[in-house]
From TrEMBL, chain A:
Bilayer topology annotation: Multi-pass membrane protein
Domain ABC transmembrane type-1: 66-272
Superkingdom of origin: Bacteria
Similarity comment text for this entry: Belongs to the binding-protein-dependent transport system permease family. CysTW subfamily.
Protein's recorded name: Phosphate transport system permease protein PstA
Ranges annotated as spanning the membrane: 16-38, 70-91, 137-160, 181-203, 209-229, 250-275
Phylogenetic placement of the source organism: Bacteria, Pseudomonadati, Bacteroidota, Cytophagia, Cytophagales
Keywords carried by this UniProt record: Cell membrane, Membrane, Transmembrane, Transmembrane helix, Transport
Entries under InterPro entries matching the protein: MetI-like, MetI-like_sf, Phosphate_PstA
TrEMBL record, chain B:
Protein name as catalogued: Phosphate-binding protein
UniProt signal peptide: 1-22
Gene3D superfamilies associated with the record: Periplasmic binding protein-like II
UniProt similarity note: Belongs to the PstS family.
PANTHER family: PERIPLASMIC PHOSPHATE BINDING COMPONENT OF PHOSPHATE ABC TRANSPORTER, PHOSPHATE-BINDING PROTEIN PSTS
Organism: Splendidivirga corallicola
Length: 285, 321
């Protein structure tokens, strides 16, 4: 009898411990977001989004920062999505399951865990110096594309794995070639998962500062980039720069910048959730 | 299903294509007719000097809107790495160039000129009601702030026996700030090394409030902030072995307030200074530094010294023209 009691007690104890652990994270996040909103929300207006950086906190805006982030995001997507999805499709559908494949697999998993600053150094040497892109948007986008490639590849493979084999066999049974099967059956069926992975990878990319500092993202850029070869700054750089200023007005600016950055991330994540739900409902196998 | 996928891909592609449109590619180098210059000036380097250069770049834009001035914050050392490869035109530096960096510049046949543009000073402050501290020696400050002092050096009497047997409390900028790096380097001897049990804030107003509300407080921050809060705090002189010196515009300018003041520099590449936009920018920099430097919280050089720097730059850039 007492054994049962003590087991129940343990059960309850663990439950409350679990609740406590869950709430630590949530409370921290709530405090952080609340603090940011209180500090920065009043600072956001049209001028803040359309002004150039300035030494006067009240006049300073994030035009070049958010347009830089948009550029980087677009270019990174253009570079990383085809490469990542194609690599994932090859590894999952075409690649033979041999020793080489497992080595490649382990390496891709490892690459996903490499600190971002290392990608920055790689990008500095290859894209900035050897390929001579300079500290341009293109160099930044290629570097971030490398950074998120492993995530996209892994997500693509997971999504493809989730497509039941019966679908493939049915397609082959109808006389379809491998590519036809992938193009008309497998990819559409897996696209929800793939898109989710891509968007999550991109939301990681927009928060990255370290690799971009290394390749030479700037702090003061008074013009909106017009070509991929232009120099750039991004939102996290601008936030970092403002936070390190002693005047309190700049810290408020930073809070406002963080809200904009969070907003972009939330929107991207929202799209990911939406797509996933949509595809899950549509696909019936 | 396939249709929807195609639609989404099409929409994504459309967004990216739109984003990458925009025509009119940027021109670099060369002057245009009249006063309007074009081109790009690439500046990188110290984050301490960054606010000054940013202010100058901002004002320069009002005069020469077509010159694209960009400023990075790779740090003095990181900036020199790029500067010595000829990747940047101007380097912001919070210390003079090092022997090693000079060598790399020579190897890449990069000639440059060093221009002093401002002073950066730190103030050590206590509460107004504190009547026992007349000055600190560098040794005493080190004793208070070094990492090993954490938890062991906590009372005034431990610093100087005749001071009260009461605990002091410490206030200073956060560890991410350049001011903190500079203070620890000048006092403790190693950048970024200090005790952790002090009240840190990136907001100097918090420090001002903390120090002014606590009789046993000691704090430090940029001299410019003291100037704005003279009535609330007591400024303390620092003795580096040659007598206590109170930081003022004069003692900082003369360099007698050591080690808590330092000059900050810009380095200009010779090939860059031959370009009219860089030439104009650097002259504009020196001519407007006095006002802008104070604007962002640093201490300007004496008027005559700016004239010297201007002449130094003119001499440097002359042979190339």
């Amino acid at each position: 009898m007492s054994k049962i009691k003590s087991n129940r007690l343990k059960d309850n104890a663990f439950k409350y411990f679990g609740i406590f652990c869950t709430f630590i994270g949530l409370v921290m996040l709530a405090i952080f977001i609340g603090n940011i909103l209180i500090e920065g929300l009043g600072r956001i207006d049209y001028d803040f989004l359309t002004n150039l950086p300035s030494r006067k906190a009240a006049k300073a805006g994030i035009l070049t920062a958010w347009t830089g982030t948009a550029w980087i995001l677009g270019l990174t997507a253009i570079i990383a999505i085809p490469l990542g999805v194609a690599a994932g499709v090859y590894l999952e559908e075409y690649g033979k399951k041999n020793r080489l494949a497992s080595i490649v697999e382990i390496n891709i998993a490892n690459l996903a865990g490499v600190p971002s600053i290392i990608y920055g150094l790689l990008g500095l040497e290859i894209f900035v110096r050897i390929l001579n892109f300079g500290g341009s948007l293109l160099a930044g986008a290629f570097t971030l594309a490398l950074l998120i490639l492993p995530i996209i590849i892994v997500a693509t493979r997971e999504a493809l794995k989730a497509v039941p084999d019966s679908l493939r066999q049915a397609s082959y049974g109808m006389g379809a070639t491998k590519w036809q099967t992938i193009q008309y059956q497998i990819l559409p069926a897996a696209s929800g998962g793939i898109l989710t992975g891509i968007i999550l990878a991109l939301s990681r990319a927009i928060g990255e500062t370290a690799p971009l500092i290394v390749i030479g993202a700037l702090a003061y850029v008074p013009f909106v980039a017009k070509t991929p070869m232009d120099e750039f700054t991004v939102l996290p750089m601008q936030i970092f720069n403002w936070v390190s200023r002693p005047q309190h007005e700049f810290v408020i600016n930073a809070a406002a910048g963080i809200i904009i950055l969070l907003l972009i991330t939330f929107i991207l994540n929202g799209i990911a959730v939406y797509l996933r739900n949509k595809w899950q409902k549509k696909v019936n196998w | 299903m396939n249709k929807q996928l195609n639609t989404i891909i099409a929409v994504l592609l459309a967004i990216f294509t739109l984003a990458s449109c925009g025509g009119e590619s940027s021109k670099s180098g060369g002057s245009e007719s009249g006063d309007q210059l074009t081109g790009a000036i690439r500046i990188d380097g110290s984050s301490t000097v960054y606010p000054i250069t940013e202010a100058v770049a901002e004002e320069f834009r009002a005069v020469q809107p077509k010159v694209k001035v960009t400023v990075g914050v790779s740090g003095t050392g990181g900036g020199f790495k790029k500067f010595s490869r000829g990747e940047t035109d101007i380097n912001d530096a919070s210390r003079p160039i090092k022997e090693k960096e000079v060598k790399v510049c020579e190897e890449n046949s990069i000639k440059y000129v060093e221009l002093t543009i401002a002073y950066d000073g730190l103030a050590v402050l206590i509460n107004k009601e504190n009547d026992w501290v007349d000055h600190f020696t560098v040794e005493e400050l080190k004793k208070i702030w070094e990492p090993s002092a954490q938890g062991t050096v906590t009372k005034w009497s431990q610093i100087r026996p005749e001071w009260p047997d009461e605990e002091f409390s410490l206030y200073g900028p956060g560890v991410a700030s350049g001011t903190y790096d500079y203070f620890t380097e000048a006092i403790v001897g190693e950048s970024g090394a200090s005790r952790g049990d002090y009240t840190a804030s990136e907001d100097d107003n918090v420090l001002v409030q903390g120090i002014s509300g606590d009789k046993n407080s000691i704090g430090f921050f940029g001299l410019a902030y003291y100037e704005e809060n003279k009535d609330k705090l007591k400024l303390i002189g620092v003795d580096n072995g040659t007598g206590a010196v109170i930081p003022t515009l004069e003692t900082v300018k003369e360099g007698t307030y050591a080690p808590l003041s330092r000059p900050v520099f810009i380095y200009v590449n010779d090939k860059a200074s031959a370009r009219p936009e860089v030439d104009t920018f650097v002259k504009f920099y020196i001519e407007n530094a006095a006002d802008l430097v104070q604007d962002v919280g640093y201490i300007p050089l004496p008027e005559a010294e700016y004239q010297n720097q201007l002449n130094k730059f003119k001499d440097f850039s002359k042979p190339q023209q």
